[in-house]
Amino acid sequence: xxxxxxxxxxxxxxxxxxxxxxxxxxxxxxxxxxxxxxxxxxxxxxxxxxxxxxxxxxxxxxxxxxxxxxxxxxxxxxxxxxxxxxxxxxx
Length: 91
Hints:
By secondary structure, this protein is an alpha+beta fold. Helix content is 42%, strand content 24%.
């Protein structure tokens, strides 16, 4: 990852963090920004190996997962990022 892209990701992550803090969201800021809600949680962090942001969401049910993905997408779009469809990986 280039220094320029690392700084750009850091600025966007900080913008998301600032909006979430202002809204009173329950957050953990180790290795990115992790947000806890009634539906579950989502995590946003810079990749260590690629010039991308990595997002993870986990919820108890599909409806909760869709709400988390929508919240995450809104935060990314508010930071000026174009959001592709967020896939659901099943384990």
